């Protein structure tokens, strides 16, 4: 069980795509992670290289991603890193995927309101209505 576990902080780069598959619900989105560095000579912060990851969220995490995340929002993703090399159409591709175990908004850059999903309450498990429900206390 030597898997590479990572915690990545970045921004949602694409609208989450949600699907109901025979194996269960799944959502995926692209995560952009840009390094920043301080240039002491110019006394400014500068953007470095941007890495993109495809984040996969399964089962209830996938349902909740669909109703909770939008493009541009800052998030923290923890999960298993999977780097794949493949040939497609005569070209070599390398992709980095994260099989997410946990996803949350980065509260150092904003606020969020948590809503617990209750089993049996269809309005709280329908991805289309998750953004419109009131917080459950």
UniProtKB/TrEMBL annotation:
SUPFAM superfamilies linked: Nucleic acid-binding proteins
InterPro entries according to UniProt: NA-bd_OB-fold, Primosome_PriB/ssb, ssDNA-bd
Pfam families given in the database record: SSB
One GO MF term attached to the UniProt entry: single-stranded DNA binding
Source organism superkingdom: Bacteria
CDD domains in the cross-refs: SSB_OBF
Keywords: DNA-binding
Keyword DNA-binding: yes
GO biological process: DNA replication
Oligomer status and interactors: Homotetramer.
Protein name: Single-stranded DNA-binding protein
Organism encoding this protein: Streptomyces alboniger
